[in-house]
Each structure stands twice: as structure tokens, then as C-alpha cells.
């Protein structure tokens, strides 16, 4: 069930139970990217997946930045009157989740779970790949190439179609901001402010965020973080392996 409030927020809100799981999607994704994971968790937890500004149905931020995304999410959590939150961020959403965790502290968050996260330093991307993605992201062909190149497992048609559709929906200025600035903007100097447990779920076969990036640019900077390694899965873990991801999330939340 999709809901909206205050004309600035669009989100999926399903299930019941504590804590509340709040999902942040990947770059070119949307709240709908999480629907298969939510389906497996909603019986035991309230699950909220936000459309981040500029993606899905959410209006773009006037001034996109990691700080402003953090403010957007904090305001959403406040308006939803949540008090026990596990923040789960995938890729771009993982970097944003780290920013939120550094800003909020333990007053709202119980823990953060990062899924194939963009590192808090700079995300590796070859110039030719960045130029390709900047060229025309509304093209179905470009979107399909990006989605297929990010996966190791062929996606079932409904999941692949969602990934392609959310790719071409993204707002242009937000798209350029992430590729030209956001993915490279360092927030590693903020990590000491994080006071909640952090876990990282990543695949050693991820073609987008390589294993060495996770180890050297994420775990090395978060020495207390728990790392869960997957294999045979690409970057789009919520779409490629929702069952495995939901199982790991459930275990992290209930342990």
C-alpha cells in the first residue's frame, strides 16, 4: 500500500511490529525496489520504504546534498512519529544512511544496515561509465544496459522492469548531482559521530562496489561494523536475492 503525506513524501508503508524498518533505495531505484524484501518481513515488522527526492514519485530537492537528504529523512521519521528505527540503505541509500546515523545518533535509530553501500569516501566508477550514465538516462536501452551490468543473476521480468522504469524516472538534476558530486563527497570525517550498531551486507561478486572497496573504504573506516559476505550476487541485492537479504535483516534485527 502506497501512501503520501505533506506533498513532499511518497512511500510504501506495510506490516506491523517493532522495530520499524525504514528502507532507503539505491541510485536510480525507488521505494518499489524494496517491495520483494518487504513482502518477506512485513508479517513481523512495520516496513517503510521512502522514495528519496528526485526518484520515484518524490519531488527533487531544491539543493541536493547529503546533508539535505539527511534532513529530509529525519523530517520524514519525525512526521511519521517513529521512535524505534532500523535504517536500511542500499548503495547510494547506504551512504545517505551513514549521514543520517551521524546526524541523528541513538535518539531515533536502533541500528543501521548498509547493503552494498556506496562508501563514505569516493565511489569507484570509471570515467567512461560515468559519461555513459550521464549521456541519456531516460533511454530504455541505457537503463537496460545499466541494470543488466549491475547484476550477476538474471532478474525475473517484474523486478527487471521495475529497475528499468525507476531508472528512467529519475529527475535530471538529481541524477547529475549524484554522479558528479554526491558519490564522491567524503563524509568519513563524520563517522565518529555514529553511536548505533552498523552492519554491512555485501557481495564479493558485486560489479559496481567491488569487494576491496567494501573492505578498505567501508569496513576499515567502521571497525566496529559487522560484515556479512554474500557471493554469486551482483549489486542489486534487493532485486536479485530478496529472500537471502530478508533473512539476514531479520537476524540482525532480532539478535
Summed up, the helix count is 10
Global Rg = 16 Å
The counted number of beta strands is 8
How far apart are the termini?
Answer: 29 Å
Mean pLDDT: 93
What percent of residues are in strands?
15-25%
What characteristics describe this protein?
255 residues, alpha/beta, eight-stranded mixed β-sheet, 10 helices, 17% strand, globular, disordered N terminus
What's the arrangement of secondary structure elements?
Layout (H helix, E strand, L loop, with lengths): L1 E4 L3 E6 L5 E5 L10 H7 L5 E4 L15 H14 L5 E6 L1 H13 L4 E7 L11 H9 L4 H10 L7 H13 L2 H9 L17 E6 L7 H8 L7 E5 L6 H4 L1 H13 L1
Parallel strand pairs: 3-4, 3-5, 5-6, 6-7, 7-8
Antiparallel strand pairs: 1-2, 2-4
Report on the architecture of this protein.
The protein has 255 residues and is α/β, with parallel strands linked by helices. 39% of the residues lie in helices and 17% in strands. The protein has 10 helices and 8 strands. The protein has helices at 35-41, 66-79, 92-104, 127-135, 140-149, 157-169, 172-180, 211-218, 237-240, 242-254, and strands at residues 2-5, 9-14, 20-24, 47-50, 85-90, 109-115, 198-203, 226-230. An 8-stranded mixed beta sheet has the order 1-2-4-3-5-6-7-8, sandwiched between helices. Helix 1 (35-41) links the parallel strand 3 and strand 4. The longest helix has 14 residues, at 66-79. The two termini are 29 Å apart.
